[in-house]
Amino acid sequence: MVGCGKENVKSEAQNKSDKLKVLVSFHAMEELVELIGDDKVDVEVVIPEGTEAHDFEPTTKDIKELSKSKLFVYNGLGMEHWVENFLKNSKVEVVEASTNVNTIKNDGVTDPHTWLGLKDAIVELENIKNALIKIDSKNSDYYEKNYENAKQELESVYDEYKTKFDSIENKKFVTGHKAFGYLCREFGLDQVAIQGVFAEGEPSPAKLAELVTYCKDNNIKTVFAEEMGSTKVAETLAREAGAKVETIETFEGEGDYIDGMRENLEKIYKALK
Q: How far is the C-alpha of 215 from the C-alpha of 192, rounded, in Å?
């Protein structure tokens, strides 16, 4: 029995060592890499679960992980302010996943939350697929097939919800922070947020009062709070406005991407119906 156990551990370690080691900045990038790389990749995440991407600083351990990796994937557009220093003197292949996305400016800054638009996530998947093929060309057909499957699935979710959102008149929803610009662009929705693009600072009493008025004037019955963010302010707003709080995913710390995006869209749709 002990012998079998040792063999098992050994074969698992061997199996892991056969995979491409990919380091990613945060969870959403892990989800996208795994959609393309699946069982050909071993993905490590730099930013620990529960830590805001905007506030993070890498450690010496993270730099060691980078040196052992074949590929580093990050989102870009200011989401990971520490990347330039982190990659200094590194020889690893690098992908800025948001390359070629048609970006949005919100409150004077570029919104980095590109993966929250389904069509934009497809652009990111293509960038990741191309990088994996570049460093592992023998498995190019595998990566191409996974990319086509993921693209098809995301387009199917898009088509379903485009029809649903087109069928309703109310397009206004309220979120904890202004992370859903790309999703809104795709479905013609209008987000009003408690905090800005980078979830910085608490809203002033005047801002909160303004939001309460907005919710009442627009018959807002649901205030969305992100899994990663503080729900306290959202709860205060909801209480004052006679609304309820629902959680919504940004995939910065956890969550299955395709199922999670479908759930996000369904929650928003139900709140607007």
A: 10
Relative to beta strand 71-74, strand 109-110 is unpaired
Token pair for residue 178?
């202004």
- Read off the amino acid at residue 71: L
Are the C-beta atoms of 247 and 231 separated by less than 8 Å? yes
Asked if residue 235 lies in contact with residue 221, where contact means CB atoms within 8 angstroms, the answer is: no
Domains of the chain: 2-157 (3.40.50.1980), 161-272 (3.40.50.1980)
Please say if the pLDDT value at position 10 is more than 50. Answer: no
Torsions phi, psi of 94, nearest 5? -125, 140
pLDDT greater at residue 230 or residue 127 = 127
In degrees, rounded to 5, the angle at the alpha carbon of residue 120 between the alpha carbons of residues 58 and 155 is 130
What's this model's pTM, rounded to 2 decimal places?
0.92
With a CB cutoff of 8 Å and minimum separation 6, the contacts of 108 are none
Note the pLDDT tens digit of each residue in 188-216. Answer: 999 999 998 888 778 899 999 999 999 99
Burial 67-102 (b: 16+ CB within 10 A, else e): eebbbbbbbbbebbebbeebeeeeebeebbbbeebe
pLDDT tens-place string over residues 116-144: 999 999 999 999 999 999 999 999 999 99
Q: Among positive and negative, which fits the CA dihedral 52, 57, 58, 59?
A: negative
Instruction: Please give the angle made by the CA atoms of 150, 153 and 157, to the nearest 5 degrees.
Output: 135
Beta bridge partners of 224: 175, 246
Residue 178's SS3 state is: coil
